[in-house]
Specification:
Length: about 525
């Protein structure tokens, strides 16, 4: 059994050790009953403090993967039923009980003016467990990164690699203006001011036709129009996830999805990833161990890594999900933004026709985020359940947005816009990759996306993403640190670059600023 630790990594050594052992256990490399090395022996072999090994072993014990027997050692446990498997990498925020307050805040408050004191509500006690499960520091960190900086090199024009939306100049204002005028000049919707909860029938028909063009067999019965694809994640969680249910995700993933799973008190388990997305060779072991209810994945132009899952891995993912009877949530927000490299990826929903895949997409990444319109493709039984649950959230997607999307899909108007957008984004990707090659120091690595928005960069050893972000923001350049997307919130060795957000003329300058900041650390 080969184990290593990287002393220059931003990830604590005990977490590195626990991650390697976890991967070996769930993959079957360490079989049930395998005796792990004693703490002192392993500490000596790795040249680390014994406490590091103790912490790693304790984390694996908390996860139900290993157990110690006095006088005999530490052993790998058999796969446990789903109900007995503890959470991996999740914590719940707990409020201090009201009984812990020993003083009377009204009696203790003294006002110099003699006026009755203003007593604020005890927010930490009043907020619900649901809201406390959110990791608000992630949201705050994302907001800080997206605000950019205005330091010495920023002037009034910061360079934003952080925000997960297109450059405002890429929004097709003329096209939107034209289709909006046509949509509201039409008498087609006279006498029908409100939409059905699933969306206008004609729009559902057009979306189904669009999905068939992508290789997904469906009709209007399989489609519901959403107020953004994130609403689809929320509705699916409401429909399927009970407290304690396991959800498998890529180790780094779309962080609003993580927040939704946390709010449902789900066990979130990260599956390791590489340059081709989720390690599906490990998926069987993870499903056997944790018995997930859902597998949430972004197989095409992944956020944040930019990777695309090959066809063989897609087949494996669908096959494993069927055998373990867990549902797949395929988030395909960027799937239409293919640059033309190689073969166009087939959605998972196009490889499975028995209902195990629920597909989500949106107009936000190809038209404008302000449109707030997406869609879900699923079995009609699922659509009916999601529609019923939606009545507690909203009655339907904005009729104005639906009319605009309907006009965009008619006569292939949106297809022409997306084709020109993908060509422009491919050029920006090539400019960004060229700048990375020319300016970045030794030890920096990055992905080469085939579509979408993002490049995922691995920092040289010993460099922390948050430290680098602080230096870059002072010079007017921002990006997203990897820890925001990490299931365990501990990744400080990666950064996400949205190469389509800055102006094309600013890409080289922004990359050069990041490289100069790296070299100065």
């Amino acid at each position: 059994m080969r184990l290593t630790v990287d002393r220059h990594s931003g990830v604590p050594m005990y977490r590195q050790l626990a991650a390697q052992l976890r991967e070996s256990i769930v993959s079957g490399a360490l079989a049930e009953g395998y005796r792990l090395p004693p703490e002192r022996e392993l500490a000596a072999r790795l040249e680390v403090n014994r406490t590091t090994v103790l912490q790693a072993y304790q984390q694996l014990k908390d996860e139900g993967l290993i157990a110690s027997k006095v006088g005999k050692g530490t052993f790998v446990l058999p796969a446990a039923p789903a109900a007995s498997v503890d959470a991996v990498g999740t914590t719940a925020l707990s409020a201090s009980p009201a009984s812990s307050r020993t003083a009377d805040p009204v009696a203790d408050a003294v006002s110099a003016s003699g006026e009755p004191p203003a007593i604020r509500p005890p927010w930490s006690i009043l907020f619900s467990d649901y809201s406390n499960r959110f990791t608000y520091h992630d949201i705050a960190e994302a907001d800080r990164a997206q605000r950019g900086g205005r330091g010495e090199g920023a002037g009034a024009h910061p360079i934003d690699f952080a925000t997960g939306s297109p450059n405002p100049a890429d929004i097709p204002d003329d096209l939107l203006r034209a289709v909006s005028l046509e949509a509201f000049a039409s008498h087609e919707f006279d006498g029908q001011p409100e939409s059905p909860i699933e969306g206008f029938d004609e729009l559902r028909d057009l979306l189904a036709a669009h999905m068939r063009d992508r290789g997904v067999g469906c009709d209007a019965r399989n489609v519901m129009v959403l107020s953004g694809s994130e609403q689809g994640i929320d509705l699916i969680v409401r429909a399927f996830v009970n407290p304690g249910d396991c959800v498998l995700v890529e180790q780094s993933t779309f962080f609003p999805a993580l927040q939704t799973f946390r709010s449902a008190d789900a066990r979130i388990v990260g599956v390791p990833v590489d340059g081709h997305g989720m390690r599906t060779d490990l998926l069987e072991g993870y499903c056997a161990r944790f018995r997930p209810k859902l597998i949430y994945t972004i197989p095409t132009f992944h956020n944040p890594t930019g990777t695309t899952m090959p066809i063989e891995r897609r087949r494996t993912l669908v096959d494993v999900a069927r055998r373990y009877q867990c549902l797949i949530v395929e988030d395909d927000a960027y799937g239409d933004l293919w640059y033309g490299d190689g073969s166009r990826p087939i959605p998972l929903a196009g490889m499975e026709n028995t209902g195990y895949v629920m597909y989500l997409s949106t107009f936000s990444k190809t038209v404008t985020s302000g449109l707030r319109t997406g869609w879900v493709v699923a079995d009609p039984h699922v659509i009916a359940r999601l529609a019923a649950l939606r009545r507690m959230v909203d009655q339907h997607t904005s009729t104005s947005s639906q009319r605009i999307c309907l006009e965009l899909l008619k006569e292939g108007r949106i297809a022409g816009h997306v084709a020109s957008l993908a060509a422009a984004y491919r050029m920006r990707r090539d400019v960004t990759l060229d700048a990375l090659e020319r300016y970045m120091p030794h030890g920096m690595r990055w992905t080469r996306p085939q579509g979408g928005y993002y490049i995922w960069a691995t920092l040289p050893g010993g460099v922390r993403a948050l430290d680098l972000l602080s230096r870059c923001r002072a010079k007017g350049v921002s990006f997203m640190p990897g820890g925001v997307f990490d299931v365990d919130e501990s990744d400080d060795a990666h950064i996400r670059l949205n190469m389509v957000r800055p102006d094309a003329a600013d890409l080289e300058t922004g990359i050069r600023v990041i490289a100069e900041s790296l070299n100065a650390m």
